[in-house]
Structures are given as C-alpha cells and as structure tokens.
Input
Amino acid sequence: MNRKISKVAPRVGIVSLGCAKALVDSERILTRLRAEGYDISSTYDGADVVIVNTCGFLDSARAESLEAIGEALAENGRVVVTGCMGVDEAAIRSAHPSVLAVTGPHQYEAVVEAVHRAAPPSHDPFLDLVPPEGLRLTPRHYAYLKISEGCNHRCAFCVIPSIRGDLVSRPAGDVLAEAERLAMAGVKEVLVISQDTGAYGLDLGHAESPWRGRPVKSRLTDLASALGDLGIWVRMHYVYPYPHVDELIPLMAEGKILPYLDIPFQHASPTVLKAMRRPANQEKALERIRSWRETCPDLAIRSTFIVGFPGETEEDFEFLLDWLDAAELDRVGCFKYENVAGAAANALPGHIDEDEKEERHARLVEVARQAADRRMRAKVGRAIDVIVDEVDEEGAIGRSKADSPEVDGCVFLQGETGVQPGDVVKAEVYAAEDYDLWAEVVRD
Ligand code: SF4
Output
C-alpha cells in the first residue's frame, strides 16, 4: 500500500537555516505536510517544491539565506520562502523575483497554502498517518521543545521582537504533553528552547494548566520540575539571567534536570551592557555563578558574547576578558558585532573597525578556551554519564551532560561499538582537550 502511495504523493524538500527555533518551525511545517500526504524529499531533484526556511538575524545570515534561495531556484526552480527573513519580502523578491511565495516566521498556514498551490496534495486517506510525536529533523534520541515564542526585551542589537513579537508562552500542560509524547516515542533528551526561556509564563500570569491530573503552573521552575519527572535528560537553553533562574540550580543538583545552563551574558562591561540594553550587574553575576557552583558543582555554563559592539573601548574589552577568566565558563560562543537591518544599535556612535573586531574575537576565544580547558581537565579520572549520538566501526561518539548537541563538545568512546544512539552509559574520562573528552565505558 505504501509503495503505491509514494508514487502519487507530491514531494517537498526543505532547507532549514538559522537557529534551533527555526528548526522547530521546519519540523512543524513538515509534520503538517506529512499529515496531508506529502512525502519528504532529501534532494532538490526529487522535490515538486522546495521550502527555504530563512534566518534574518545578522546581515551574514541574510546573505546566506539569499544564497540558499538562489541555489534552490537553480536546482529545482519551485521555491517557497519562509522564516525570519521572510518579513523582508522586498529584499527577497528583488534578489529572486521568481520565488513562488514569501511568508514570515510561524506563518505555518501560509507556508502550507503556498505548498498546496505549488504541488496540490493528493487525497488519499491512508496518507495522513503521522507518528503522534510529529516529524523531527533531529536524530531520534533528542528533540527540541519550544516553550514560548517572542520576547519582551529590546536588546539594541536584536530585531527578534519586531519579527516574532512579544512573549507568548504555551500552557505548561501542552508543553508537558508534547514532552511526554516525545519520551514515549524514544526521545532520551529534550532541549528546552524559546527566545527567552527565563521569562516563560510571565504573559500567562503563571496560570496553571492540567497535566497527569494535577495543575502545573506556567513558571519555569514548575515546568522544569515536571519535565524532570519524565525520566529523560532535560536541558535548558536561552535562559536570560533573571534572579529567579537561581531556583533552577537545586533542581540540577538533585538530578531532576541536567546541570547545564545556556545563559547569554553577551558582555560584562557595565557600559557596554547598558548600551546593549541588557542587565548591567555582571559583578553580581560572578557572585551568582560562584553560588550556583557551590550548590551544584557539576553545573556547566554555556554563554555567548558579542565583541566589537559600538562604543566598546579596549578597557571595556579587557574588563570582559578578566570577567571571563574569573567566571571560568564551560562553553563560550563569540560573535563579532554586525549591524542588523532595523536594529537600534546601528545608529550608535563608535562603530569598531573590522580588524579590531577580528583581533578582539581571537583574544576572547583564547581566554575562554583556556578557562574552559581548566574545567575540562578537572574531569579526567572521573566517571561521567554519556549519551551516545553516533556509532561506527571505530567506536562511538557521545556527549556528557555538559554538552548540548551541535554547539558543545563531544565525548569519544574509542573502540566502543556495542552501544546504540540514545544509550546512556557510564564512562571514565582519560583525556581532555579544549571542549572534548575521551572516555572508556565502565562495566559493572
Ligand atoms: S533577549 Fe534575546 S531575543 Fe530578546 S531582544 Fe534580547 S537578544 Fe533579542
């Protein structure tokens, strides 16, 4: 039956650019289309229409998006554009007038309608069989879990609130039901994402919703605690440094959620933070980090920083380097400041030249690497839990609780071929370098 169906089903290809939140949007679009009987094509050739889910965050991401649209047009010719860059339809159409449709982020209906027009769905009732957990673009054992959309902050370098709007949270019961379906489908790790995870539920007045016959508040600590009851790894991303984030740390120490916090500090100098319109009390942030680590010594902190923000002096930058050296963050991402069309920071005085940005970027990366290396080396000789991501004839590659997929380090289990993706094994670390570890499985 399926063979017959696959011959008649229209086929959709998708190119998904940008962040994990955009990836979740792509998954939703594909889930919906699959439910309507479309097949998913992994090649341009095999697709009746190609969706390009764009990123519009930085100028470089916009350029990459335009390039991807151009490639899809050259290879296939029938292209529907969606995602963050979709809000700038004029720019897309002026570069690529032949795209079939342009829609913005979360306009799932509009994307699906454009696909219907380009490649009408076949009407076979057997085609609407989709696994209840939906379709995912991540490997089977981990999945992103989006808990809210939009953001109430107005950071000077960011246009996300103007693209995605103010914070809109999902009721806790809905989020938990989705996480439970994922766990039942074999997912071993959920990555909690949003634009501003710490603000979860503010817009709902932290209203309660039912889950497993009891009310759960739409408050990050309550949600995290309930997610922790599912018995899978729960990892927190994009947690803005609000005071109540402190409440998550005991849950991490107890082992309810992973001892991992992705908290975008962006800078440390009070002057730069003020210009960025971010909270400017990083002195306190150092104290908080120390106290978090006292409560939960295994806590891994990931953060991102922007160097070369307009007006950043050498003194501000050195302040940031000293702060990083003291904070000893476990994982650090660093971006060179770029203007983003429509962002308030574009109009600030004191733009830094590219060579200077490049140099600061290299200096920051080195200080962050050395600080992380000190923490990584302290793991040698310890037994840690490792989730397996890939296995081949040479061994397995996994991640520790301190490693989120795609962005952090790996744990190499050389010669370990008897494990499966998604297995969680205990392994003793025998070497560390930069952000990676080498370990040997411990057998009882
Ligand atoms: S908190 Fe994040 S999403 Fe919100 S405005 Fe700032 S950078 Fe943008």
About this structure: The mean pLDDT is 89. The CA atoms of residues 336 and 358 lie 7 Å apart. The first strand starts at residue 11 and ends at 16. The pocket of iron/sulfur cluster is lined by residues 151, 153-155, 158, 160-161, 195-196, 240 (CB under 6 Å).
